Amino acid sequence: MKLGLADRFGHPFAGIRQAFLRRECCRRAYLRGLFLGSGWISGRAPAYHLEFAAPSGVFARELLKLLERFGLKGRVITRKSSFVVYLKKSAAISDCLRVMGAAEALLELENTRVFREVKNRINRLVNCETANLNRTVEAALQRKNEIGQIIRRVGLESLPEELKELARLRLAYPEATLKELGEMVDPPISKSCVNHRLRRLSAIARQLKSRNGKNPREARL
Fold first, then answer.
1. Order of strands, sheet of 75-79, starting from the edge strand that comes earlier in the sequence
2. Nearest residue to 55 via CA among 34, 32, 28, 40
3. If pLDDT is split at 50, 70 and 90, which confidence band does 67 have?
4. C-alpha angle 58/63/68, rounded to 5°?
5. Is the pTM of this model over 0.70?
6. Alpha carbon of 132 to those of 76, 98, 136, 168, 178: distances in Å?
7. How far is the C-alpha of 57 from the C-alpha of 34, rounded, in Å?
């Protein structure tokens, strides 16, 4: 009763006494006190969560209005016989902590969020690089198998000089990139030119495979 939270009979008021909200500093202090008394926060992604326990539905609705005065969009859920006003998303929670003057908690949340975002970005980049590497290795292995088929069927000597040189380089350096292969060619050629010649080798291998049982020398080189 001395705090003005209950009537003279000790019964709590259903809503928020407006006398506590006359000035902005009072509204911020009220939120801060309410959070210290009945609040809870989780800074674990993706379930960023901040909540206030409300003693009644009327109190919950008035608390939503109070949050809206600071540009915060909250929601209400019922949990057993009580009401809970909550905020989702890290940005909204950061704003609420800033309103309440919880500087240390805000800094800790922001540090956690930034660290997690950087970590996730690095993981995405690593996964992307790994996928690209896997595709490069698979493509190199496929080209190596195709060149092996050409050797078994018609031999490298049957190939044009530029294809013969590149085929030997691919066999000698199976892990080399297209750019690296191009730099080994004499004279050096571009990455797109290397890719074009490898595609020609692939076409020859497909022709040889489709002519299975026929004269291998009939394949157009």
1. 39-42, 49-54, 82-88, 75-79
2. 34
3. very high
4. 130
5. no
6. 46, 43, 6, 24, 13
7. 16
